[in-house]
Amino acid sequence: MADDLRLAHRNRILAVKDLPTLPKVLEEVTRLVADPNSSTDQVAKLIAYDQVLSAKVLKMVNSPIYGFPGRIGSIQHALVLLGLNVIKGVIISTSVFDFMISTMNGLWEHSLGCALACTEIAKVAGLEEPEEYSVPGLLHDLGKVVTAVQLPDIRQELDATVKERDCTYREAEALVIGFTHEAVNGWLAQHWRLPLKIREGMAWHHAPTRAEHYPAAACVVHLADFLVKAYEYGFSGDDQVPYLDPNALKILKLDGDALDTVMDALAEKFLEVADISFS
């Protein structure tokens, strides 16, 4: 019976019919990228065709998250500087921006903070293409948004469970619907054919050592989520700081000094984005 209910919830979530602009643009972009005869120019034109979306994407890529504030003037320029995987993540996040704002007050700020932290952690850890790690950071709580949109009748029960049991939102998800937002992240990332590194960062950020192919990506998001919650930047459904797996620091080869460097950089970044609006 419990398995049937869990399967029913999963099927309703994967319908994702109420997330506009996302499937069409993203599917077309993914199709073009898979075609060896397509060009960056074609991908840029496709994104730019949706003027509202392209304006939001440009605003995001010119934010302090990506290190080129005010310097990226076109979608094509963004593709060259940041790569397609980052732009795909930005498309998804900007497309669900309104839903994120309306679903949970403070969730957008928490996600933005996590993206910032992911980039800083990846830089200090010496990982290649650190900007790419911002994508799973930005999308790591997307499962909460999609669950709230697809299962609106359950949202109040989740909030009530967090309050009554003084537990994390994740624990409430497990109790009420039988799975957690990381599972939803994994389903969606696979459904949208996101790269495996981004998928594992989204799906395993609460259990980073279980990531099979890209544990560093999961560890980066895991640590970023911990830091942003510790800083109390934004709100992700509960006011508790999540468990920090010490193995994540070992995998990333970060000691106390390196962590101090990340925290100092992060404090400055939070000040830079404090007054930025993405609406």
UniProtKB/TrEMBL annotation:
UniProt-listed Gene3D superfamilies: Hypothetical protein af1432 (1.10.3210.10)
Name assigned to this protein: Putative sugnal transduction protein
PROSITE patterns: HDOD
SUPFAM superfamilies named among the record's database cross-references: HD-domain/PDEase-like
Segments forming domain HDOD: 19-208
Alphabetized PANTHER family for the sequence: PTHR33525, RIBONUCLEASE Y
